[in-house]
Amino acid sequence: MEDKEKLETSEQEEEGNTKRDFLKMLGAGLGIAGIGSLVGAPAMAQTEKAGKYVIVITHGGDDPNRAIFGLLMAQTVADKGWGKVHVWMTLGGADLANKKRVEIIDSPIYKNFGTAAAIMKKIKDKGGWFGCCPPCAEYFGSTGSDKIDYVEMAGGDWLMKNIQDAWVVWI
Prior knowledge:
about 15% strand; alpha/beta; 6 helices
């Protein structure tokens, strides 16, 4: 009986080592890939064909730091010419589509970059596109004459179609 238990214990240890070794190898590989992407990203962005970026913003006046941060990411892509920028606003982000609200949304952290309205104008002037979830826009009063003229109503179907071939940032 003892020999059988030793054999089973030995097999379990071997199996555990194999799983453990596999997980270590996987972790190391992912770590190297992650470091490589961080180090290699600027070079890739400068040498490869321009891409398509979809920045999904889910906050407005409720969390101006996140809202402005998302807009600054979109502005960076537009300023550097890395590709076409699409900003899609949903949930609290629909607040940014409201003419009256967007003028007063600014971030204590990113105050030097201006209001949400100023950043959005810079993105638009560089060819950026803005869309907003229709039910969210209605909820936040970002419709009719209160909606920013260049913001289009675009639902989840637009989002699902456009993220297929894009770099997506969800904030």
